Recover the amino acids of this structure.
């Protein structure tokens, strides 16, 4: 049991460490100093040391980090050492894009079901998984252990769907619908708002223009 | 010209204000106090006032905010009062999902081209725009004013593509490829790492379990 509260900012950085360490492994790098990792990631070395100290360190002063070890340990912290069965609700383009993304499965996120309201999609296989119609969902949830539900459906359906999922025992929702889902105690929701990222880009673009043209 | 530097955290929150104000408008709400907005958004009222003060306030003590006015003004700050012509590089599922997302166009993000390497996709129309092959890109960029390029292609192609785009005058890249694109001075990059969001979910899920089961 983790007694110390880890800040959200650190948690947000962990997947990035994990990704960079994965790239180092691909490049057959065995050890890396916090300085070198810092240059690669554009984070200060002291930030890296601080972040990793939250989890007990992993490094030996002067020797740098063992890349494989650190990668594995961060993977464990992120919960990537177990299989997380997932389902996708909404088999539109985005749902299918996520279903087709094979990298998730390598990290333990195993897609076991895809559901949609559209009868035209019924039975179409995406990466070997046949799209089912929504009325089949409650039975499916009874018969299968599902950990994570991915919501790629319109905003106006998302709230009811989330409630249905929670009522049927789902404890983690990855939400792409364009609203913030409020989670009751014990349910974890990660909201992804793609349009907010695009607006941030647009903000930075217009600020840059103002500074250089106005 | 904006003389004051606005913090990244504030900028990240602006699209969220914009979204909530848009919802209020849909619900025909004309005025809202920072307290009520605060309850809706799960942000403190003083945070809201502070954030908006960065841009000159918008509120009158005791009267709350005029929703339409605030929505319009934040839209301007986000650069949503002008048209941003965009192209998508990579017409796979994710590229097509983004192409099909009509909301972007409402905010001024106008898709004018989709490109892919796969000849099978050539000429297929997504929301009325025919997919073109990549060799046609440089000429297209000469003949059209493109502001934002969306990268939805594999990691191993993303760097070269970004360079090609930058060489051809693109100044804003919305990157979905699984690497951090480093931008040269004057080029704005917004990296979206979907798998990092999924890992954050998985982290929170395993922490919750540890706290409640271990």
């Amino acid at each position: 049991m983790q007694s110390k509260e880890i800040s959200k900012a650190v948690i947000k950085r962990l997947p990035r460490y994990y990704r960079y360490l994965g790239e180092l492994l691909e490049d057959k790098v065995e050890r890396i100093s916090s300085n070198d990792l810092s240059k690669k990631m554009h984070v200060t070395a002291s930030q890296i040391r601080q972040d990793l100290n939250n989890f007990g360190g992993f490094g030996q002063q002067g020797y740098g980090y063992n890349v494989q070890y650190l990668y594995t340990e961060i993977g464990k912290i992120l919960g990537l050492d177990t299989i997380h069965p997932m389902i996708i609700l909404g088999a539109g383009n985005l749902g299918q894009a996520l279903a087709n993304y094979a990298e998730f499965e390598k990290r333990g996120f195993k897609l076991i079901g895809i559901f949609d309201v559209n009868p035209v999609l019924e039975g179409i296989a995406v990466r070997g998984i046949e799209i089912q119609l929504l009325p089949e969902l409650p039975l499916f949830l009874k018969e299968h252990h599902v950990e994570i539900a991915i919501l790629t459906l319109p905003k106006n359906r998302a709230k009811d769907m989330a409630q249905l999922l929670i009522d049927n025992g789902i404890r983690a929702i990855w939400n792409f619908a364009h609203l913030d889902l409020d989670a009751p105690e014990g349910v974890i929701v990660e909201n992804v708002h793609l349009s907010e990222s695009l607006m941030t880009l647009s903000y930075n673009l217009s600020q840059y223009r103002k500074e250089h043209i106005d």
